[in-house]
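Batch manifest, entry 17 of 40.
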Amino acid sequence: MSKISIADVVDDLTGPWQPRDLATANDAVVRIARFHGEFPWHHHDEDELFLCWSGTFRIELRDREPVTLDPGEIFVVPRGVEHRPVAEQPAHGIMIERPETKQYGN
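Output type: structure tokens
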């Protein structure tokens, strides 16, 4: 058990879309990644929570309006909904999901 500096982890992230696990609690893992550009469309068999840590990014949803997140804002993509994060400029997002959640979906 030790504290984790999210700022230090962010400084160590070198490229986009390479999530780093920060912590595990109960049945969830907290991950952070640098977002920049467009991530591929995908879906999960479980919900996925996005928290904008820095910058701005949007979650595009198939056949729905996109959701733009600014620092401190949260959005949950319901299981089965096809989506992709998009960041015009580098941003950082925290995801809370199950440990077995595959980055590129099911």
